[in-house]
Amino acid sequence: MKEKRKTGMLIRLMAMIFIPTLAIAGAAILLSRSSIENGLEQRTLHGLKLLAHSVKAGFDNMDGDFSVDENGELWTGDINLSENPEELDRYVADSDAEVTIFIGQTRRLTTLVSAETGERIVGTDADAEIWEAVQRGEEREAIGLHINGLSYS
């Protein structure tokens, strides 16, 4: 009888220790996962901002002003950037990043390629909500964009 009692108390004591410990461990795992995801997202966004600044600085150093001709091709000075997209490709070589240059709301030069045609996705417009924010002078960060049927997250 005493042996049964000791065993019962031992089980209750273990339950009193292990159940809260497991609950705390589960909560810690969930919190750390969220923190890690947030940290990775912030680091990625920071890297993309640096990439955008690098692309802007590189293209700002080219001679001439940006213009779009009657065929929708992007020029800077006497350089047809639409015929030389490798200028933009250099910025994202060996990465999973994509870069687009917009003139107004329209995509004029990009590293994005259509999965269907294999052609660069130019002549399409930026998301209206993002474009409106940019027009107001706001910086916009977006996760999970869909461009030409593909998800970018």
- The counted number of beta strands is 7
Query: How large, in whole angstroms, is the Cα Rg?
Result: 27 Å
Oligomer: single chain
**Helix-strand pattern:** HEEEHEEHEE
Give the mean pLDDT: 84
Parts with pLDDT < 50 across at least 5 consecutive residues: none
Strand content: 15-25%
Tell me, what's the shape? rod-shaped
Strand order of the largest sheet: 1-2-3
Count of alpha and pi helical runs = 3
Distance between the termini: 63 Å
Helix percentage? 40-55%
The biggest sheet amounts to: 3 strands, antiparallel
Q: Which structural class best describes the helix and strand composition?
A: alpha+beta
Summarize, please.
The chain has helices spanning 2-60, 86-92, 128-135, and strands at residues 66-68, 74-76, 79-80, 100-103, 106-110, 145-147, 150-152. With 153 residues, the protein is an alpha+beta fold. The strands form 3 sheets. Strands 1-2-3 form a 3-stranded antiparallel β-sheet, with no helix packed on it.
